[in-house]
Amino acid sequence: MSTEELARLRTELGAGSGALPESFGSLAPPDAARLADALRRERARQADGLNEAAEEALKLVPALARGAVRKVLFR
């Protein structure tokens, strides 16, 4: 696997410059790229879901206070 694919996997896994599991070294470059892309898409999907849930929760706050609550929660 090339250093580019390893760097992408480290980034997506939040490993920084740390070591990846040994088994990742046996991944073919296309598989490593596919895994990195899948991790990135899943992280984006989770972030979208959290944002949607937060907006839904804000609907429970009285309308006059929503702006202030949004500022406190989402600086």
Task: Explain this structure.
The chain has 3 helices and no strands. The protein has helices at residues 3-13, 29-58, 63-74. The mean pLDDT is 86.
Instruction: Provide the helix percentage.
Output: over 70%
- According to DSSP, the number of beta strands is 0
Strand content: under 5%
Average pLDDT confidence is 86
Oligomer: single chain
Category by helix and strand content: mainly alpha
Q: Ranges with pLDDT <50 over ≥5 residues?
A: none
The rounded distance between the terminal residues' Cα atoms is 41 Å
**What integer value in Å does the Rg equal?**
19 Å
List the secondary-structure elements in sequence, H or E: HHH
- Biggest beta sheet summary: none
**What form results from the Cα inertia axes?**
elongated
The total of helices stands at 3
